[in-house]
Design a protein that fits this description.
Phosphorylase Kinase, domain 1; about 325 residues; alpha+beta; Aminoglycoside 3'-phosphotransferase, Chain: A, domain 2; about 35% helix; 5-stranded antiparallel β-sheet; 3-stranded antiparallel β-sheet
Length: about 325
């Protein structure tokens, strides 16, 4: 039977090459005027550019070092060639300006937008990303970050204009419609996912993209989240459970963490299962789409997360 009609488990799906999933523009391929703009902001000629090749988008993202030793992390996208990426970078700058300095993220130092390009300059943070497969120590630190984000965003700034996640991503609710009915417990899973629209306390801030490749463990002790392009309204515990899905897929026992973490210990288990079913359906519908040439590992990522979410959900529901 096809992988698209029956679960095979995350261990049967190729892992993405963590840290090497993005095909990005290199510094030398940016237009001369964009390079000149960046060098002016950094205070001198760039002598080295370390591309940050995690993630699943093709926009420019590099740590740049000048001849004087100044550093900055710069993201850039062309409005003509990469319109969606450029728009997401502009949205990230807007979101960060509204959220202010209280959130755990690298500092946004400057923004440039003209008719052709969007360019963002961040502080360069000496850091590493969580190791995969997850270790307990790295996972605990990442879960601390999810709780720090929830605490810092209890009050959502005016003007952020967030939509419920079920409106931003309708396939969170409808994803199972595109999954073959041969999938075991299809009816039950689809009914669970449909309950996303009625989850209580779904008016909180969610980062909505809190994966290992968007987390930095800084050498100065900070734990930071990157890529604030896609926040939405959802239960405050949503991001934390997504992290646990990936840890479950890597073989860790995540139930004790779910039971003792501040964000999740009092959450109705049925509500957690609702989110697991919704995430699984969303990823199953995503993996059936064509592979974009600019992000060759995107469908592998979706396929693996679908299997990891299903594996945990099936275990929790006793589906075998």
């Amino acid at each position: 039977m096809s992988v698209f009609t029956t679960p095979v488990g995350p261990e049967a799906i190729d892992q993405v090459p963590h840290g090497h999933t993005a095909f990005r523009l290199d510094w030398g391929f940016l237009p001369r005027d964009v390079r000149a703009l960046v060098e002016d902001r950094l205070g001198g000629p760039v002598v080295s550019a370390a591309s940050q090749d995690s993630g699943f988008t093709p926009g420019f993202a590099s740590v740049l070092t000048t001849a004087a030793g100044n550093q900055g992390f710069v993201k850039a996208a062309s409005k003509a060639a990469q319109s969606e990426i450029a728009a997401s970078y502009a949205e990230e700058a807007r979101n960060l300006s509204l959220l202010g300095g209280g959130i755990p993220t690298p500092r946004l130092e400057w923004v440039h937008e003209d008719d052709a390009w969007v360019v963002l300059g961040f502080e360069a943070v000496a850091a590493r990303q969580p190791r995969r497969p997850w270790t307990v120590e790295d996972l605990e630190r990442a879960l601390d970050l999810a709780e720090a984000i929830a605490a810092a965003t209890e009050s959502i700034p005016d003007g952020l204009d967030l939509k419920p996640i079920v409106e931003d991503l309708p396939q969170i609710v409808t994803g199972w419609d595109s999954v073959p009915t041969e999938w075991p417990h299809h009816t039950e899973a689809a009914a669970l996912a449909a309950g996303m629209a009625d989850l209580p306390h779904a008016d909180r801030f969610a980062h909505s993209d809190l994966r290992d490749d968007n987390i930095l463990f800084a050498v100065d002790g900070r734990t930071l989240a990157c890529d604030w392009n896609w926040p939405a309204l959802a239960p405050a515990w949503l991001d934390l459970v997504v992290l646990l899905v990936s840890a479950h897929g890597d073989g860790l026992d995540v139930e004790p963490l779910l039971a003792r973490r501040d964000l999740t210990r009092d959450v109705d288990p049925e509500h957690v299962d609702t989110w697991l079913a919704a995430l699984c359906g969303f990823m199953l519908s995503s993996r059936a789409r064509p592979v974009p040439s600019t992000s060759p590992y995107l469908r592998t990522h979706a396929s693996w997360y679908a299997e990891a979410a299903w594996s945990w959900l099936a275990r929790r529901r006793g589906w075998g």
